[in-house]
């Protein structure tokens, strides 16, 4: 990437600022946001987030209309099967506290389905859409139980090495009026 004296100067200088990196390499690229979308039909809200071949963890987040509760649907790619969970959190001041966590592993491997209703959202493990044929797309369909504006977003974590994940890449949250 670098040639001759430039690489020696950079290696002896230690870390580089973004401005220095741009001046040296000419281009700085940021990780792209994940592709995120949703569709609302009656009370059914379908949301999906798409990563790429490096994606190892997907998350779809729903925040209840009052803004005090949220549900995260999280999917991990495992060695031999999918791992997943549904996490419900409640806002406490400026932070979120975990209220409950339900594992989806058995349902994702063809076992009994699981479902729940919390934070104004009802869901069923049969409504999960897993990535297939390398498309990197994770989706979930939920039933909205409250009137108001839900906040919905998607996120992915990419592997820098096998099973070592970088920070969340998060889509801009969308407002969904029900």
Secondary-structure topology with pairs:
Elements: H1 4-13, H2 18-25, E1 35-41, E2 44-50, E3 55-63, E4 69-77, E5 82-92, E6 95-103, H3 105-108, E7 115-118, E8 121-124, E9 128-129, E10 137-144, E11 149-161, E12 164-165, E13 169-170, E14 174-177
Antiparallel strand pairs: 1-2, 2-10, 3-4, 3-11, 4-5, 5-6, 7-8, 8-10, 9-10, 11-12, 11-13, 11-14
Broad shape: globular
Count of separate structural domains: 2
**How far is the N terminus from the C terminus?**
52 Å
Secondary-structure-based class equals mainly beta
Name the CATH architecture of the largest domain. Answer: Sandwich
Q: What radius of gyration results from the CA coordinates? A: 20 Å
* Average pLDDT reading: 84
Question: What's the total helix number?
Answer: 3
Helix content: 10-25%
**What's the number of extended β-strand segments?**
14
Largest sheet: 8 strands, antiparallel
Strand content: over 45%
- Helices and strands, in order, run as HHEEEEEEHEEEEEEEE
Low-pLDDT windows of residues: 1-29
The CATH topology of the largest domain: Immunoglobulin-like
Features:
mainly beta; eight-stranded antiparallel β-sheet; 14 strands; about 180 residues; Immunoglobulin-like; globular; six-stranded antiparallel β-sheet
